[in-house]
Every structure is written in C-alpha cells, then in structure tokens.
Amino acid sequence: MKPDWLDREEYPFESNYLQLDCGRMHYIDEGEGPVIVMVHGTPAWSFIYRNLIKLLRPRYRCVAMDMLGFGLSDKPDDFSYKPRAHAENFEKLMEHLQLKDITLVVHDFGAPIGLAYALNHPENVRSIVMLNTWTWSLSKHNTFSKASKYLVGPLGKFLHSKLNVSTGDLVKELFGDAENMPESIRGQYVNALGTPEQQVRSLACARELVGVSRWYEELWQKRKSIQDIPTLILWGERDRLVKIEALQTWKKFFHECYVIHFEDSGHFLQEENAEELAGYVSNFIKEERKKRELTC
Hints:
Protein name: Alpha/beta fold hydrolase
Domain AB hydrolase-1: 34-274
Low-confidence stretches: 143-147
Organism: Pontibacter fetidus
Pfam families: Abhydrolase_1
InterPro entries: AB_hydrolase_1, AB_hydrolase_fold, AB_hydrolase_sf, Epox_hydrolase-like
Helix content: 40-55%
Radius of gyration: 18 Å
Structural class: alpha/beta
C-alpha cells in the first residue's frame, strides 16, 4: 500500500517488491526494450528518476530500486545501512530480475553501490551513465559541503535522533543547488526519509564517507574490470558536494568516455535537466548499439 504523502501524479508507477531477509525492497520496472537500471544516492530514492523514466519508458525498460531505508522500501531497525550492504541487496535484485546487457545509470552514492555489481559482473553491463559521483574513499579529500560534514559528524547523529531536527532542513541543505525545486517536490524527499531515528540509520552510508572505508578502496582496486565499458558522464558544474576533480579522475580512467557539462546545474541533474538527460542517454544507447552491429 502506497503512503498518503506520495504524489501519484508525479510518481505514476506500479510498485514491485523483493523480499529480502532484512525487509522488503521496493522497485519499479517500467516499459519494454533495452534495459536501463538506475541507482539513486542520498537522500534520494527512485523518485529522483521519475521524469527520466517517463521519457524513456516508451522505448526502454527502466528499472529503479529504493535502497532499504529510502523511499517506499522498508526501514528495518536491524539492517546495517552501510554501502556494502546496499550493494549486496542491489546484486540480489539483479539476480532476481535476471537482467543482461544493461545500461547502468549511477548517481552520488549510487555509483559505488551500482558499480560494485558491474565490477563483479562486467559481462552483464553494456554501458554506464554517470552523474556527479565517485567510487573511492574521500577520507583525505576536502570536497565536502556543509551538509556532508553535518551528516558524518556525531553532532548530526545526535541532533536527528534526540532533538528531532527538521527533515525539511536536511533535504533543503542537501538539495541546496536545486534552487527552483517546488516545495511539493521537496516534500516527496522529506517524507520518504521517515522519522529522525530512521534517518540516522539510513544515512549511515553518508557518515561512512569520510571514514577510512576499506570497501571503497577494494572497489577502486578492482576498477580495471570495467575500464573498457563505454561510459557517458553527465556532470553538473555547480555541484557543491562532488567537485570537478572527481570528473577528471573518471575521464582519465575510462578508455571510451563521453562527457557532457551542465554549466548552470548542480548535483541533482535529474531534477534540473531531465529532458536533456533523457535525450543524451537515449542517443548514447543508440550509438553504442550501432557500433556493436558494425563490429559484428
């Protein structure tokens, strides 16, 4: 049953659930055709991809999950909520759906979670689309906004669990560069985070960001297995969280990499530039398919 706060006009999708040991994970599976799998970050959920899905589902099969603790998925008390655990759940979803030859779209924390699957199963990933993200430990990098420093500190945890700091203030800070976001849309992110206690648990992945994360380093050490996968990078240059140095790292890494800059946009391109993103993603998939047909 969908919650009362959900705007069904903005999010007009059929809900699907995968029962995991620790709770039910919600996902949407819309359209037919080549498969596009979208992985969200923090503090988002599949709602952030809604406009992309509406535009792409006439020609593509679009799959987007809500990580446990986010969106319409369960928010269990006894789940770790760390990136590695989210990645394990994503792999279970992919096994459940038996998806092949996918285009993997990753954003923010969705990259280490989604790319962990690609690193383990590169044969199933036909192409990658990246939006303002990273897949390595940032413990030594001074690239954090006030919001990220706030999230990772013990003060942030205390304020949310004990003093009931406004969820709206948290979302407003994290979406600070999406200045024109209507309050009705912002409310879909606020409500999806749940109670202050649930926020503390679900945002554990953010708090791990500046810690020494062995898992991030393990992923980065295995990166060569996806180095030859064609990749499209869509980058908002006004991002206040993930700085341009991350983009330069990706450009040097991938052997076949195309970069589109959005000079006037920030971290959440899906909210600011959905129509343009859909066009670039569709054209990218078509061009890569033509290349494969020519080589065959």
